[in-house]
Amino acid sequence: MIRVPIKLRRVADESYDVRIGRGLGPRLTVALRKKPLGRRYVIVTDSHLTRHGESLLAAFRRRGLTADLVSFPAGEGSKSRRVRDEIEDGIIRLGAGRDTALLALGGGVVGDLVGFVAATFMRGIPYIQVPTTLIGMVDSSIGGKAGINHPAGKNLIGAFHQPSAVYIDVDYLKSLPDRHYASGLAEVVKYGVVADRALFSSLETHLERIQKREPDLMSRVIEACCRIKAKVVMEDPNESNRRKILNYGHTVGHAIETLSGFRLAHGEAVSIGMVAEASVAVRLGMLTLEAAERIAGLCERTGLPTAVPPALTPAAILEVARHDKKNRLGRIAYALPIRIGAMASERGEYAVEADDALVTEVLQDMRRLRPKPRTLMA
Prior knowledge:
about 375 residues; single chain; Rossmann fold; two-stranded antiparallel sheet; 2 domains
């Protein structure tokens, strides 16, 4: 037998900065003029943000940077193979090559799609995240997760590809619809539960001001979330263990979001998922009932749903949840809190298994709750 060893010890510096402030969108062109990422840039956005995309494109061209704009239909339904192909076709028509850098201008759908295209186009090109939604600012733009959905579940096809920079311009929050702003607050609540009880308490105390989108306060809230995400990502960049805590609420939430046909916003489904998974933790003796009630109460005050839609059966939810990436040997695993600010681990693993019968009871109880009407925020 002939043996040919191939020894690859890859050491790569994928460090980058997350910048948070006001008016940062147009100002990022100054940084790219001083330290270019490529010889040309393609801004990718969705149909709801075309005006912002054209404004940013004009800023690039004023700085003498070669840039183009590509857009696709807004919505979770675009996080698909078809739209990924359309983006790739579009940048190929523009003559993009390895000297091209992409810029994702939008929410989580835009960031995930653009990151995945950047990870695979020409076997990898740089990209920048410019999130315009609260979910994008506090969560999806950081950490390099990129991908698309599959009929079997969310984010089943994807890659880890870290952005070269993240620019969070809180001024974009001004034009974000109330429903999508509340959806983003679900992820902020999640960070408080998984890692920062002071953040959670601050949300309880200052929720009215946060709902008014005060820029200075929101900058601090976003910074707190980004620091938590950054710490977890630096410890576990490829989600082999500790990073799984950030999936709190997402095992059940992703299944509900998928079964709703994406009529539920991501944060709305995650809110239901957080309440459900907190209830699972209570029944397993991991979490106090008082803590679970605080989580549900904060979600309700934020204007988020906390009841499972009656049309969705526990069996259907669990069937979709079986495709979750945390699962092993077909058993569903959950990220479960043990108190506000800390998560459970079993034998050093942050993905905890729970019996299907127990979870079914929780989901069935939550189907009996009367869904509260969505509240509009000030």
